[in-house]
């Protein structure tokens, strides 16, 4: 599973990247796209709409399942990835680059820095998947 160091993550499996212009790019993590499988539809708000941290801003459809998308941050949508809307498989193929979903204008970066770091997100995934941390696994192997 790919977890990029330069991103921040939410427990809803969204990623956020602070861009050079202090805007935030939002997408879904490798774990999320893997769990969803092939994407067959996506519903998003309009440019200019506001999104609220931890609230649903749209939905994503896959294999007869519709899942809400939750915003990791509050802000105004300044751009929606039109290429993604035209070519849904991008979200499965290139989820951290071309498969981004929204670009937000935020008033403060405080909430951004409160999101999980890559290391914290990795630990969170291990908790929900039921795996032990890598260090613990290595110690067990050495004892055998």
In N-to-C order, the SSE pattern is EEEHEEEEEHHEHHH
The whole-number mean of residue pLDDT values reads 89
At the third CATH level, what is the topology name?
Answer: OB fold (Dihydrolipoamide Acetyltransferase, E2P)
For the termini, the CA-CA separation is 27 Å
CA gyration radius, whole angstroms: 16 Å
Low-confidence stretches: 133-144
Q: What is the CATH first-level class name?
A: Mainly Beta
**Helical residue percent band:** 25-40%
How many strands, which pairing sense, and closed or not: the largest β-sheet? 6 strands, antiparallel
| Count of folded domains | 1
Question: What is the assigned CATH homologous superfamily?
Answer: RNA polymerase II/Efflux pump adaptor protein, barrel-sandwich hybrid domain
Gross CATH architecture = Beta Barrel
Find the count of extended strands (DSSP E, 2+ residues): 9
What is the overall shape? globular
Strand content: 25-35%
Main sheet strand line-up: 1-2-3-9-8-5
- Kindly name the structural category: alpha+beta
Number of H/I helices: 6
Report on the structure:
With 144 residues, the protein is α+β, with helices and mostly antiparallel strands. The chain has 6 helices and 9 strands. The chain has a 6-stranded antiparallel sheet. The radius of gyration is 16 Å and the shape is globular.
